[in-house]
## 1
Amino acid sequence: MSIRRFALAALTSALFAGTAVAKDYELLNVSYDPTRELYQEYNAEFIKFWQASHKDDKVVIQQSHGGSGKQGRAVIDGLRADVVTLALAGDIDEIAKLGKSLPENWQTRLPQSSTPYTSTIVFLVRKGNPKGIKDWGDLIKKDVSVITPNPKTSGGARWNFLAAWAYGLKAGGSEAKAKEYVEQLYKHVPILDTGARGSTITFVNNGQGDVLLAWENEAFLALKEDGGADKFDIIVPSLSILAEPPVAVVDKNAEKKGTTEIATEYLKHLYSPAGQEIAAKNFYRPRDEKVAAKYAAQFPKLDLVTIDKDFGGWKTAQPKFFNDGGVFDQIYQAQ
Amino acid sequence: MSRKISPVIPGFGLTLGYTLVYLSLIVLIPLAAMFVHAAQLTWDQFWAIITAPRVIAALKLSFGTALYAALINGVIGTLLAWVLVRYTFPGRKVIDAMIDLPFALPTAVAGIALTALYTPTGLVGQFAADLGFKIAYTPLGITLALTFVTLPFVVRTVQPVLADIPREIEEAAACLGAKPFQVFRYILAPALLPAWLTGFALAFARGVGEYGSVIFIAGNMPMKTEILPLLIMVKLDQYDYRGATSIGVLMLVVSFILLLLINLLQRRIEKP
């Protein structure tokens, strides 16, 4: 800021002293596919919350949704997101690494590894569960066909893959056994869509497959849609993965647009009881214990592995499983 | 002293300059940027990427299905053009307008609609399932989507040429004793072939690069129904820009060679 502009700013704020300067904010939240409904509701809540303390400010919040990797690339390539709320930390890591628009330790800046809400991977089956699917082991039974997106192009699919791997590891006791299980599993997958929504369409609208591996919140949404509850059941397996979709302020963009304060507040407010309540209502598992207790009936308890403890974080898991030549490629090359 | 004949549009220098700038901005610079990206790899790395089994399988699939789709449209498209030019019937104008719809429709919409129709439980797909084969999620489905998307090319290139051939020529040939097949072989085909080849080449080139409509119907199984543009997206999702541009370069070179061959063929036909 030049001296003259600073002086001007100082003068104007002096003039308006006491009434705080009214500002216009336009925030862009770049997110992944299934959070559309969540943030529509949350944005309205946040604007109300912000205006309670900044009466004259005008706040407009725009949302952008798409596959998590694609969204991350858009931000690297210059999409001016103030905040990113993506499906996995790995995608925000890449924004930090390639785009250099936020520090690499971004995940330590907010509580709980910057994930205000979590989800997990569950099974969606046809009503009445005709194939009798109860756990991961049933997915590789004869005549069972499984729908899941391609982990190379879908963040959700990577969580699916890792959840399956965790089961294989626990049931078999070794990495070799885990690989064998996952290889078996993907032999039962006839279609690999590019994104989670694509797979949901394949399973729900086109009637393909017996089981859909889905984000818990997507599975709930499928039930909520008209007639969904008459057509599908949710099956919670014995073990799954704690899917942690993180959030971060994109420092460089926010600084340029002068939105650092409000953008940070936007993310912090997600952790407040009001924010947590909205997350739970949209079928994301809240972090707040009180809110979690209130919605306990909605979210059944199950064993959850985590990406950091069990897989050494995305920095290890991504190259090992999903990059070219990784485990996922190997199981298809072997066929 | 010889006088220059002034052309209709003045200023050869100006128009050529404009053409070059325009082409550079729209076509050459973006393509060159792709080559620059790919050139950051050593030759060995580049070669390893484009000869990976998955890439080769996808290459065969993409070019194969595009070829079949272009051939199907080559036959059906000519037939459509024939019907539209040579006959008048109620609703002809409407059908004529419908030919262009595949261009106007977002390809993703087309892909989702075709998939819903042709899955084993879909309106049409169930009959195929009864007969024991699948359309959606197989190369057949990909060909189908490409046939839909590239439908207008052959029709629209053949149609005006066909309209320019007076019926009298065919009648004259018939009077001179030519059989219907001979009329087609010696009168119509030579006149139509250059336009037909253009339409065929356009349809083929468009089919090779098509992503939006195919992705829903393909099933995207590695080694089986994975198209080349999807592999580019896969690389991009790993933030592997160089790998993605390498495949882009591969597609570009193969397409360019094929289009060049078609062009040469066309020139030989036009100058017997």
Note: Chain B touches chain A through 29 residues (CB under 8 Å).
## 2
Amino acid sequence: MEEEVEAGAVKKFMYVNRKQPYGTVYALEVLEMVLISAAFDQDVHLVFTDDGVLQLKKNMATDGIGMKNFSKTYRALEGYDIEKLYVDQESLDERGLTEDDLLVDVQVISRAEMADLMDQMDVVLTA
Amino acid sequence: MKFAILVNEGPFNHQASDSAYQFVKAALAKGHQIFRVFFYYDGVYNASKLSEPPTDDRNVVANWGKLAEEHKLDLVVCVAAALRRGIKDENLAQGFRISGLGQLIEAGIQADRLVTFGD
Amino acid sequence: MSLLHTVSKSPFERTNLQSCLKLAKAGSSILLYEDAVIGAMQGTAVADLVAAAAKSCKLHVLGPDLAARGLDAGKVIPGIAVVGYADFVDLAEQASAVQAWC
């Protein structure tokens, strides 16, 4: 485990999003991390679980709260070759949402599948 | 082993920075290397030299600076998060430097483990 | 090697512990520290949930955080190991990666 990681090494990064947008800054600042890691050509996985599924909700209109609607950025991720987006079915169910409520294509998986996926990661960043 | 540390909360409101500090001290005592300590979100407030806690309390900002000096730690504050919150070179505490988020991703790649404190 | 999951928030304030227990695979390690240490005590409203998790995962609680809160390390749920910061470092070293539920 002590050997040097070669330049150009690719690790499995997972960003675990557990919070709603707007109520706290985490969703926005996680996106900033995700975009930077794309520049490092890492194997990036985005997971949306618990309240994090609300980050992908369609039809956000933020004018009334005076904050920037950054949900378009999730649609732009594909352009950065970030295409591994996962949502767990249980978190959708708990919040009365379905896949049709989401503004980007995601893989809807079970919590057990999400646990398996998380277990394979090298670096996990959660907010 | 090489550890990278991510601190995501400011000092005092949350214990995260204190826990990270204790973890780093314990890791150094065991002979591990700390590749970098990265401060993100409100964690950037750990680098404010304007922080002046009462003298009978621990000084979180100064403690990080001292530890960095003793062990040549690389304490990096995220520039985007810092500018949002008013942390700049003018009020940056000793021992810290301001740099980009790429420094966190690089730490994740280079270190054997990334350990996160606070959310 | 499997993950080390860390939890720092109280299960009576946030659902981080509950989310962690839903996603922690059998055989992985879990460390409760900071305000999460209350979740390691016997006789709480989450004790049954935590005791069940201690059967499939390796549960640990940070002793300095118990002591700071006046919580008796002798009264943690059987099967949960009371550890120090040096052990926290060892747990991170022995894990494949560290997942902080905060």
Note: Chain C has a mean pLDDT of 97.
